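Why do we care about 3D structure at all? Because function follows from shape, and shape follows, mostly, from sequence. That is the central idea of this module. The next example makes it concrete: a single protein chain, its amino acid sequence, and then its structure expressed as tokens.
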Amino acid sequence: MNYHVSKKIGFIFIVILFALFAAGIRYYSKNKLEQDNSVQSNSRKFGTIEIIDPASLLVLINEVSVIDARLSGFHEGHISSSQPMNWTEWTEEKPSIINSVIGNPSRWGKVETNRQIEERLQNLGLSHEKLIVVVGSPSGWGEEGRIAWNLLFWGAQKVALLNGGFLAWKQMGYDVEYGEPSKIKEKGNFILSIENSRRATLEAVKQHLTSEAGPLFDSRTEQEFQGERLHGQRRGGRIPGAKLIPFENLYQSNGQYISALELQLLIGNHIKGTPIAYCTGGVRSALLALLIESRLGIKSKSYDGSLWEWSHDSNLPLE
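And the structure:
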């Protein structure tokens, strides 16, 4: 073998070694990136819900975001720096008289999941890792529960319900603003990360009927339970096997939420499986589900489509 041939073979050998080395680097980098992405996607913990009193909120007021979920009364008085958030503006289709004619009521209660949600939440100053306190009214329909449930479903890590709502805050003599909401000081960095384990779909409820997956709670009134319909509901009645837990019973006479013991007496002892709560459009049911979780430590689901969706299909049973 002459010198030139040996030199050529050596050059080819070096090229092959370099190619193998480069391939190894790419393989390592690819796997490292996949591992990093896996850690990032799995690092977020299951969001938590708690109940906070006005005095505790006052201490934290500069460290939290406050959302006012009331459907009316915001301009007549609200907690300083709070932002209004109407649950009807965060569904697949807004409930309205017009939409009852030209729209689809089965979509009225179903929460939005599109990517625009992320920017809208950021524009409210919300961040998924910062505590968000939701304010409601005991005289409402549990709207604070629905907004809090929405936020947890979208990926919020820490959410709290203000015990007693805005009225309790006002009665304590704490600062109240009037008129339009304050301008957001800084845009939030909320990252949308859907937590499907909080949501019961129509198919999940159907399966619930033929299994022992957990109890089914109806959070409407006694009259609705017996067949009275609300606007947009195609058929009256209740889903077979449901137990009535009237949402008005979730509040004490002073407007605060009932205690753990009182709630336990309402839903019963020895709960097996994952409870599913429903109502007409997933508002009252969301409050019930979150109170069961915060008071009793039992993870529960809310059927956001509820009877607006269920009653729309004549093939689905109602008692």
